[in-house]
Amino acid sequence: MDKRNKSSSVKKSKAPLIISVIIIAGLILAYFFIPEAQGFLNEAWNALSSNDEERIKTWVDQFGWMGPLVIILAMAIQMFLLVLPSLGLMVVSILAYGPVWGSLLVLVSIFTASSVGYAIGRSLGSVMVKKLIGDKTEKKIGDFLEDYGFWAVIITRLNPILSNDAISFVAGVLKMSYWRFIGATMAGISPLILFIAVLGESTDGLKIGLIWGSVISLILFIGYVWWDKKREK
């Protein structure tokens, strides 16, 4: 029997939403009542939205050796929040540290976040994962993963608009081989990172890269599913 069908429907936890709202409310209050916080947030916004790679790098450099560590930790933490998109962290990494070191930093960050998500799914099981991502999402991704395995992970990593975090949790629940999972993760994310790094001379270039990466990978996925269904018939 499918492990995901053994238990009754589990209600999705509101904790990520609540924590995200608290963070937003905290930032708003800090902005209006703490001058230092207002200055920092204004500086961060102006730098990250400037389209100026040198300005972004200068802003990030103020954190010294903590900069890359913060990005890696943020990539892992963002799995549980709604206000910290992984795409945003990828953009900041590549713009701040350049196409080579920024890409390597993104790879390390995704490796870490994916491993954490897999470990949570494997150790805490289906019920906890359903609380994090919802019953329907867990079942849908579980079916996708069981049907396509290694390739399901690759396609999901290739397309930034798909649920990258959820597939890490579910792969752990289904006890997919860790090295097979992480290998597929790295194989899938590497072409996307390379693609956006080549186009990443500015935030506009990165946006274009992400859009085209999403479109191309989605077309490849649809073509693969069509070919697979035709082969089965």
Q: Briefly, what is this?
A:
By secondary structure, the chain is mostly helical. It contains 9 helices and no strands.
Which features would summarize this protein structure in a list?
233 residues; mainly alpha; 9 helices; disordered N terminus
Rounded mean pLDDT is 75
- The coarse overall form would be globular
Number of helical runs? 9
How much of the residues is beta strand, in percent? Answer: under 5%
- Structural Rg: 19 Å
Taken in chain order, the helices and strands follow as HHHHHHHHH
Number of strands: 0
Distance between the termini: 26 Å
As residue ranges, the low-confidence spans are 1-8
Helix/strand structural class: mainly alpha
Largest sheet: none
**Tally of discrete structural domains:** 1
User: Considering DSSP H and I runs of 4 or more, what fraction of the residues is helical?
Assistant: over 70%
Polypeptide structure, described:
With 233 residues, the chain is an all-alpha fold. It has one domain (11-232). 80% of the residues lie in helices and 0% in strands. The protein has helices spanning 15-33, 35-48, 53-61, 66-77, 86-133, 135-158, 164-173, 178-198, 203-232. Helix 6 packs across helix 8 (178-198). The radius of gyration is 19 Å and the shape is globular.
